[in-house]
Amino acid sequence: MTEDKKRRVLLKLSGESFGGGSLGVNPDVVSAIAKEIAAAATRVEIAIVVGGGNFFRGAELSQRGMDRGRADYMGMLGTVMNALALQDFLEQAGAATRVQSAIAMTQVEIAIVVGGGNFFRGAELSQRGMDRGRADYMGMLGTVMNALALQDFLEQAGTATRVQSAISMTQVAEPYIPRRAERHLEKGRVVIFGAGAGLPYFSTDTVAAQRALEIGAQVVLLAKNGVDGVYSADPRKDAAAAKLEAITYQEALVRGLKVVDSTAFSLCMDNSMPMVVFGMEPEGNVTKAILGERIGTLVSN
Length: 301
Known about the structure:
Blueprint: E1 7-13, H1 27-41, H2 58-63, H3 68-93, H4 95-106, E2 108-114, H5 122-127, H6 132-156, E3 161-165, E4 174-175, H7 178-186, E5 190-194, H8 204-215, E6 219-224, E7 230-231, E8 243-244, E9 246-248, H9 249-254, H10 262-270, E10 275-279, H11 285-291, E11 297-300
Parallel strand pairs: 1-2, 1-6, 2-5, 3-4, 3-5, 6-10, 9-11
Antiparallel strand pairs: 7-8, 10-11
């Protein structure tokens, strides 16, 4: 299987999806999210072992007076002939190609950007009188806490994981280095990006778009809490709002649809990066989105 057959995605998880409450993180919720991601990250391999009993059985030949070792070697040659015959019939039927295609679709390289809304939102704190820059840095620290929680549950689910932070904190996370992140992905590890962009005034939606472009992802997947796609209006305020199956970036910006940060929309539009906006619920949606099943709303050029 060649490298270009792998699907590489950037998954954005909102901070609210991590629960909250007195702990800031709901372990049961994060564990469920981690299991969905781990299910999509699982590498599937298919192996076939063929016997040679239609030609020779070493034990039977030895009972008829032949040396057992030599008889067994004859049996092994029979298995090779069967394997060659099976390979030929599989290739004639196109089955080998279909199997390889299925493996390629399940061997997904997954990078994740996490929000911190279950802890702090810089914009909201600044509205309460706090300096906006300092408030945003507090929000970035919240995303690192979410990244560490997700890493823990992913590794409990058997998925190798690395956390990279845009703010230096080497005791708990690697520094954000795009080439190192790509290498981790190529080795089958899930990479979680924390601390946003490391700068104030940038939303994690925008960071998701930027990271996706920098690591060469094929699509940005925005998992939303409480909404399952892009609507013609705010469904919480307008009962007539209709869910859109697909929309262009230009149309979303002109209509002022606020489900995603407008800077993230613009960045993806300018670089022809497709985006899928979908809901965290029901269970299994994250896995479906990672594997490329059609859910939510496709936003593209």
